[in-house]
Amino acid sequence: MQQHAVSDVVISVALCQSDGSYVCSPDLSIRERRQKDKEERLSLVLWRRPVITLRYFLLETLIKLKEWTFKLWQRRGTVSLFLVLCSASYLAYYTEGTHQQYVQYLEKKFLWCAYWVGLGILSSVGLGTGLHTFLLYLGPHIASVTLAAYECGSTDFPEPPYPDQIICPQDEVDGNISLFSIMSKVRLEACMWGAGTAIGELPPYFMARAARQSGADPDDEDYEEFEEMLEQAEGAQDFVTRAKLGVQHMVQKVGFFGILACASIPNPLFDLAGITCGHFLVPFWTFFGATLIGKAIIKMHIQKLFVIITFSKHIVEQMVLLIGSVPKVGPALQKPFSQYLEAQRNKLHHAGGSVPADENWLSWVFEKVVLVMVGYFVISIVNSMAQSYAKRLQQQRHSEEKTK
């Protein structure tokens, strides 16, 4: 902590020797300047400063496109190989022949896997906590398969329309459904979603690793929080700080198995594990391998098992009965749930058909929730990119002031 204080004083003195852009006061420090810059950037949001936010967003988008184009040009050999593979895939896709059945199968599986990987990445990167797309998409999908499996007595749903729509097979089935058969039915979706969340944990790792290797002291909020936590390690009393320190110590001292343990449980502090691994230069495959195994295999099987047990037939029936036992409002609340479950049972045995009003109401609510989440995600991207451009301007201004 003393090193940081000395560094702040030295840099502050150097700045005071410039043309007076900074006030030469012992109260002025680099931390205070950075805090002021951060507050200025955070005020740059659509609902406060819409015009300048949109302008900065467009300028940052142009800069990013220029940077990506330059990086692609530097790796033009890899890009050329990728384009050749895309061209070969295009020809195979549109050329008639007996191979078309395999092409269609691979296309279906690829798009299905890419869909769930994308939702997993959005949970880690775009939507913040890692729970949103699970609650909005993967959880309901597992629940639907579970309810259908118990109702149909089988998981061999006709394809198509599965997975777009679940209906019971027309052939006779033995009716014996097991927990493991349901887990096997949704394993691909769950593992792909978990792999997406693991990929989404890479940006904090690369950010901290690049900062440590370059010796830079980035203005990233998560990285600053990590540094402050390390400084305040001694004498920490509050639960959140102790929890963060526990994650940091486990990852730093135990290594692969510490990362695996943190990734294998629902852990809102796992971003800190990525920053810790990057800061201490943990090898990439040690970090990503442990994260992938923990999130895509161990944690996903735990979450999947929890959802399947929760929506098993006898537990759902007990829940509906429990809702009905609530005094006064119980019967009114029980009715729409009972009607919804009955409508789902009818749909499973009859493809198509009319949709009940209660199901329409629930679908309408779900669609609006998804729209709100997507809207929030888009707005957060605009705000984040605008703030990133503002950060560029601040760094440029400070650099010019130092050189004067």
Give structural notes:
The protein has helices at about 1-15, 30-40, 50-75, 75-95, 100-125, 130-150, 180-185, 185-200, 200-215, 220-230, 240-255, 255-265, 270-280, 285-310, 315-325, 330-350, 355-404. It is mostly helical.
Summarize the structure.
The protein has 404 residues and is an all-alpha fold. The chain has helices at 2-16, 30-42, 50-74, 76-94, 100-126, 132-152, 179-185, 187-200, 202-214, 221-231, 239-254, 256-263, 270-279, 284-310, 313-324, 330-349, 357-403.
Entry keywords:
membrane; transmembrane helix; 4 domains; mainly alpha; transmembrane; 404 residues; disordered N terminus
Write the layout of secondary structure elements.
Blueprint: H1 2-16, H2 30-42, H3 50-74, H4 76-94, H5 100-126, H6 132-152, H7 179-185, H8 187-200, H9 202-214, H10 221-231, H11 239-254, H12 256-263, H13 270-279, H14 284-310, H15 313-324, H16 330-349, H17 357-403
Low-pLDDT regions: 1-28
| Major sheet details | none
Strand portion? under 5%
SS element count, helices: 17
Helicity, in percent?
A: over 70%
Number of domains: 4
Q: What Rg is obtained from the alpha carbons, in whole angstroms?
A: 27 Å
Helix-and-strand structural type? mainly alpha
- Shape descriptor: globular
Distance between the termini: 30 Å
SSE string, helices as H and strands as E: HHHHHHHHHHHHHHHHH
